[in-house]
Amino acid sequence: MNPDAATIAAGAPIEVDLTPVAEGQDIKVFWRGKPIYISHRTKKQIEEAQQAPLSSLKDPEADSARVKAGHDQWLVVIGICTHLGCIPIAHEGNYDGFFCPCHGSQYDSSGRIRQGPAPANLAVPPYTFVSDTKIQIG
Amino acid sequence: MSGPSDYQPTNPALKWIERRLPIFGLIHSSFVAYPTPRNLNYWWTFGAILSMMLALQILTGVILAMHYTPHADLAFKSVELIVRDVNYGWLLRNMHAAGASMFFFAVYIHMFRGLYYGSYKEPREVLWILGVIIYLLMMATGFMGYVLPWGQMSFWGATVITNLFSAIPYFGESIVTLLWGGYSVGNPTLNRFFSLHYLLPFVIAGVVVLHVWALHVAGQNNPAGVEAKTEKDTVPFTPYATIKDLFGVSCFLIFFAWFIFYMPNYLGDADNYIPANPGVTPAHIVPEWYYLPFYAILRSIPNKLAGVVAMFSAIIVLCFLPWLDSARTRSSKYRPLAKQFFWLFVVVCVLLGYLGSQPPEGIYVIAGRILTVCYFAYFLIVLPLLSRIETPRPVPNSIADDVLSKSRGKAATAASVALALVVAGGLLAGSAQSAKAAEDDTPPPQKWSFSGPFGKFDRASLQRGLKVYKEVCSACHSLNYVAFRNLADPGGPGYSTAQAAAFAADYKIKDGPNDQGEMFERPGRTADYFPPPFPNEQAAAAANGGKAPPDLSLITKARSYERGFPQFIFDFFTQYQEQGPDYVDAILQGFEDKPPAGVTVPEGTYYNKYFPGHAIKMPKPLSDGQVTFDDGSPATVAQYAHDVTTFLMWAAEPHMEARKRIGMQVFVFLIIFAFLMYFTKKRVWANAH
């Protein structure tokens, strides 16, 4: 009953070119059937994410632990609400981040849970920067 | 199952079999000679109703499975083709879908009956626990069945429910992977759900056999709650119980037929007529109505794991009921306090169900928490406490005594009915106020030729609507599930086969590959479907500002708006189900050149009064004089909108006229049948009282 070989093979790492994503924009790619948001954050979003006091967070995690060093402007998160698996909408909610329409969870510009029933931050998928403008997810 | 049978077949062939396999004796002792208490009321007919529903679900399900394709890309379409092309496929599908709801409706009454009359008490504990197991299996089966049409609500319901298991510590994630068969809900999930959905009903049938076996060992409980002692207390199952059950079943079928033939989508969700899309979450995910109380319990607890535990405990607690309630008196009829708390508990369950369907905000969350506490308090505090402090009224000596002194207890029933009415009235008043606030963007109800039990499509309107679709809408919107042959179908726009063929020949259809391996174009035939304006969804999205125009085949069923309480209860009686057409019509007419003061819409969108959020990507599609009608109908936007909506309603449900016509025949038959059963029952029981 575990995933079959073809399903596992289809879940191999993918490469994503970041050049077409302008500042303030984001794209949604699918990897392993899951939507992955790649956001090109604005200065304001980065500052907000870095300056949010950790004590005010439900699932405390510094912004620097959620992005790759030197690539502060890129936020890569799995767009699946940690509550019950809906897809949050980008650029909505009170925290310049994501808003889940199902049960009202709100995430900030670092994908961290700020308000609502979700127990944890949006997960960061395994990824590496192949070059400055290209990442490999998986 | 109730002691050795004295049944002796006289036919030599039957005798031969009976000596080797005493099956006729078993049937005779279980369903003919079996003694049933003579004071059973109609709440006891739900056992028979449930058996019938299970048989019906299996029968319709097996036939549906012959036409269904369990594949993520094809499932939605195959269900639509069952409804459109399979002979009486719409009937099978409606029976199976509404049947699931009816099954749960009957099981809830059956369970509340057991609760009220203490049917779980010694010596029927195992019987009761088997019932809880059946209920759990039913929930699993119902959930997996709802996933099979692979609409938006199927997909997202599956996502939310399977994610519940991820709350389990340590094993959660691996359990979810096993359920999915992949990294997310997808084709493997659909395949295994289909397999299990086919398997579980037979498991249910097996447990039902055990349930009936246990029932026939302990004997039925009865409204007086005293055991049958002498012959005078019982009547043989056949003909007394059989005819009574048949009357109960025929009344239930009338109720069932109301949904099958007149309100097939009343219990469903409009979003499930949109094919599953893993990239878009519906704004408001709601499970089927029969899970709503438990969904409300799940959501009212802020911690994920605790919420899941609470939800499952709400069902598992039923297993312990025989020991939580240790009162010796079975029937709540003789327990003045337990009776009141029982009705309060029913109200709590209904209110939880209502909350489960509402968005989890503000007052609803708080009310949900209070009611969750009430739900558990009933089992864990009220019942154990009552069995210690309550002084029950004296129970009759025997069932025969109970039958003789029947007139008592009427006042209490009246009191509980009054209480229920007061609660309903309070709800009514409360929600009428909240409904007022959101009134101005609700689409205005229109007069439709196809509404009501005798509604028919206006042929001229269908033909005009087709013209509007062809000349305007079809530039961007596909109509994938409608074939040219459908234009000549009975109950449709009323064209002849030749006219439909001529209409089809106007279209260029891509076919191939030919012998050279190349695709080619040829004139359309009646078997072809309306060709889509764009080759694929990405092309459609790219040509329309990033958002693909939706397919219109099901649009009038896939769009709706909240009717709110108490309107949705009135809708059941008036058979109002035209939210979809009202909405589509309102959208087509709701464009305004300038948004009202204080409202701005983003660039690339247009202001529409009735569109949720008011910013729609579609520019105003219709303007006066755009399409000329041959029959002299006014060339106005209002007329276009009305006609094209009528046409799209037909496209969404081409067999609607047949459905309503056959529905009327079935109703006449069922009502006559129910009367016959009633009088036969009176006749049979005349000498038993």
From TrEMBL, chain B:
Q: Where does heme c bind?
A: 473, 476-477, 618
* Names of required cofactors: heme c; heme b
Please give the start and end residues of each transmembrane region.
43-69, 90-111, 126-148, 160-183, 195-215, 246-263, 305-324, 336-356, 362-386, 662-680
Q: How is the cofactor bound?
A: Binds 1 heme c group covalently per subunit. Binds 2 heme groups non-covalently.
| UniProtKB keywords | Electron transport, Heme, Iron, Membrane, Metal-binding, Respiratory chain, Transmembrane, Transmembrane helix, Transport
Name a single GO biological process: respiratory electron transport chain
Instruction: Enumerate the Gene3D superfamilies for this protein.
Output: Cytochrome Bc1 Complex, Chain C, Cytochrome c-like domain, Cytochrome c1, transmembrane anchor, C-terminal
This chain belongs to which protein, by name?
Cytochrome b
The main location class comes to: membrane
Q: Which GO terms describe its cellular component?
A: membrane
Q: How does the record classify its membrane topology?
A: Multi-pass membrane protein
UniProt domain Cytochrome b/b6 C-terminal region profile: residue ranges: 227-397
Q: Where is the Cytochrome c domain?
A: 460-592
Give the matching CDD domains: cytochrome_b_C, Cytochrome_b_N
Its localization reads: Membrane
Q: Which GO terms describe its molecular function?
A: heme binding; metal ion binding; oxidoreductase activity; quinol-cytochrome-c reductase activity
Q: Subunit comment for this entry?
A: The main subunits of complex b-c1 are: cytochrome b, cytochrome c1 and the Rieske protein.
In what residue span(s) does the Cytochrome b/b6 N-terminal region profile domain sit?
Answer: 13-224
* Top-level taxonomic group: Bacteria
Q: Which family does it belong to?
A: Belongs to the cytochrome b family.
State what this protein does: Component of the ubiquinol-cytochrome c reductase complex (complex III or cytochrome b-c1 complex), which is a respiratory chain that generates an electrochemical potential coupled to ATP synthesis.
